[in-house]
Amino acid sequence: xxxxxxxxxxxxxxxxxxxxxxxxxxxxxxxxxxxxxxxxxxxxxxxxxxxxxxxxxxxxxxxxxxxxxxxxxxxxxxxxxxxxxxxxxxxxxxxxxxxxxxxxxxxxxxxxxxxxxxxxxxxxxxxxxxxxxxxxxxxxxxxxxxxxxxxxxxxxxxxxxxxxxxxxxxxxxxxxxxxxxxxxxxxxxxxxxxxxxxxxxxxxxx
Amino acid sequence: xxxxxxxxxxxxxxxxxxxxxxxxxxxxxxxxxxxxxxxxxxxxxxxxxxxxxxxxxxxxxxxxxxxxxxxxxxxxxxxxxxxxxxxxxxxxxxxxxxxxxxxxxxxxxxxxxxxxxxxxxxxxxxxxxxxxxxxxxxxxxxxxxxxxxxxxxxxxxx
Lengths: 206, 158
Fold this sequence. Notes:
The complex is a heterodimer. Chain A is of the alpha/beta class. Chain A has helices at residues 2-6, 8-13, 21-37, 74-84, 97-107, 125-133, 145-151, 158-166, 193-204; strands spanning 43-50, 53-59, 64-69, 89-91, 143-144, 179-180.
């Protein structure tokens, strides 16, 4: 703090105990609430710890916008959302309470599908069509990239289905982990292969 | 287009500083309101802020406007600020110490703002002048006069 160097006796006077984290947390909660009421909370986010590590959950007033794995870099993801959607981003768990609860139920084998409003605005065109189709692959089942391509009326677009899955902004909620290679290999996963294996095992064990 | 931080990161980085400023120039209840008003206004305007802007100076400018609003409202209610500060602060440990808060409250507004913005949070005088209007030299003189008065009140020798 440069004030200290400037004027010793007065700097001493002007160095009260800094605000505590509790005080700041209370103020931040109130700010989030007022931002929501004022229609200024473009993106609310929270984190959720679970068997796949820490997940980031972010939502617009329309619905859940993004689920991100830790390996994507949570700060990095928020910075991308600031650039692509809006920088009006605040930690505000309330808007994500239902999503967090449903994910916890899913990890605990107590839920097979999600009932949440989604905001698919991060995905457009063919990729979006693919994502809209994926919930048709039921819990505990898998489909090949080629099958999905055929299902969205573009049987040659196998690679494009792969990239739609690889850029799925809503992993878990939109089950891209159920899309595997035709030869039975798992194929890639944005959460890492271990995460994909864990999810397929979790659903198989139900 | 350069990357703009999520607003949440702005609150994390600058929230504590702005709270210290608000508490140094207002009574505690008003300080918390001023802090929230400041960040709510900042949130509204944030998408239009140039990516290379000095975020701290921008926030202090907004906080200053909120402070002026609250001081005017308090003045209309005709209760001396110093008295309010003294009574409200007695139950509130962890604030600026009571004597200093009272002493600051007795400074003329301009001196108090200059002392707080320059000495408490370290804004250079040209930025202080931009927030308050007037010149950097005038801000420097007001801060010096304020410091001298605080020293007298606190019984410190120069």
